[in-house]
Amino acid sequence: GVTHGGLANYVTSVPARLGFEAGGRFGLVQGQGTDLGNTMVFSSLVSGGVLDVLDAEAVTDPQAVAGFVAGGVDFLKVVPSHLAALGAGDGLAGLVPSRSLVLGGEAAPVGWVRELVSAAGGRAVHNH
Length: 128
Prior knowledge:
The protein is of the alpha/beta class. 41% of the residues lie in helices and 16% in strands.
């Protein structure tokens, strides 16, 4: 299991490396069945930020996710295949939060990452 010390080390080092800033809005679009969402949950708590959680019924709807992100999400972590599926129709630009997008949970194809970075238009994209 994860120790308290391990979690403390994680939340004191990872947010700064990913460009997370105090008081930001953190978006959660993944279920909590895995540890992927912990980056957003714990980072929002230790930074005094806000955690916005998208309804489970909406996480596969590209327009709902884009609207969620456009509603003021600064930081978002997502599995690459989920983001790729969401962006297949209207593109990726509207799915990138205002400050930092974090990819995690699986490998992302290099060509797709190049497309994502281009669509991000200068907003930070991290592989975690």
